[in-house]
Design brief:
By secondary structure, the chain is of the alpha/beta class. It has one domain: TIM Barrel (Alpha-Beta Barrel), CATH 3.20.20. Helices cover 42% and strands 15% of the residues. The protein has nine helices and eight strands. The chain has helices at residues 19-28, 44-53, 75-86, 105-121, 134-144, 158-166, 183-191, 221-232, 236-251, and strands at 3-5, 31-36, 57-61, 90-97, 126-131, 149-151, 169-173, 197-199. An eight-stranded parallel sheet has the order 1-2-3-4-5-6-7-8, sandwiched between helices. β7 (169-173), α7 and β8 (197-199) form a beta-alpha-beta unit.
């Protein structure tokens, strides 16, 4: 089985001391391709260099909504320039996060809309970060007309999931699926069409239950696959093949 981790922050400092050896374990675990989303403009060059130097790593570039205080007005122009030069697989990680106290919703919306327009202009899918803002996100997606993407770590309702799917989106499931009390996620994983699901780690965050409170790693992605298999009561090979095919089709991976 060849799995794709559609969302892993492999470029961050948490992996600086053992990234090479970790990648060896990741490949041994059957995770052959990893999408590495950008968070801030200052980290894009490191991310691009990492993906250029390692087989099976694919960059996405974006400005994360949680880090508004780190973004600058000229970052959007820099994003367009780097997209033209490096052809990332997506614009991301972008979106809306209304969960955090004191979140500046209007600034987040302005940044999100600007990046959606860039994605639309360059015919790229988007990698979405959404917390407590699914309805607002869906409304902006409809207005912008982006060519689909992935709603990362999806935790909305079944109705919202169907609205994303209608807009050409896949839904990302990760380590939280392995927790016994993730009842809402379990229902979604059972009821959504398999053609709409992709796997992700969100490493170094959101580890599976077997590594609770530890650094997450894409090598644990098979545990999410196993949880999805138990919930759907389907053949593990079928689920692995379909989730991989979903990611390849959406992100045009080679």
């Amino acid at each position: 089985m060849q799995l794709i981790d559609t969302h892993c922050h492999l470029d961050v400092a948490a992996f600086d001391t053992d990234r090479d050896t970790l990648l060896g374990r990741v490949r041994t675990a059957g995770v052959t391709r990893i999408v590495v989303p950008g968070i801030t403009a200052t980290a894009w060059e490191k991310l691009l260099a990492l993906c250029a130097n390692e087989t099976g790593l694919y960059p996405a570039l974006g400005l994360h909504p949680v880090f508004l205080n780190r973004h600058h007005p000229d970052d959007l122009q820099a994003l367009e320039t780097l997209i033209a030069l490096h052809k990332p697989v997506a614009v991301g990680e972008i979106g809306l996060d209304f969960y955090l106290p004191g979140a500046n919703r209007e600034q987040q919306k302005a940044l999100f809309k600007a990046q959606l327009h860039i994605a639309h202009k360059h015919d790229l899918p988007v990698l979405l970060h959404v917390r407590k803002a699914h309805d607002e996100t869906l409304a902006l997606l409809r207005k912008t007309g982006v060519c689909g993407g992935i709603c990362h770590a999806f935790n909305g309702s079944l109705q919202q999931a169907r609205q994303y799917i209608a807009l050409g989106f896949k839904l990302g499931f990760g380590g939280m699926l392995t927790y016994e009390r993730s009842h809402k996620l379990h229902r979604l994983a059972r009821e959504l069409p398999l053609e709409t699901i992709v796997l992700e780690s969100d490493a170094p965050d959101m580890p599976p239950v077997s590594h609770r409170s530890q650094r997450n790693s894409p090598e644990y992605l098979p545990e999410t696959l196993q949880a999805l298999t138990r919930l759907r009561e389907e053949d593990i090979g079928t689920i692995a093949a379909q989730t991989t095919a979903n990611a390849i089709e959406l992100l045009k991976l080679t």
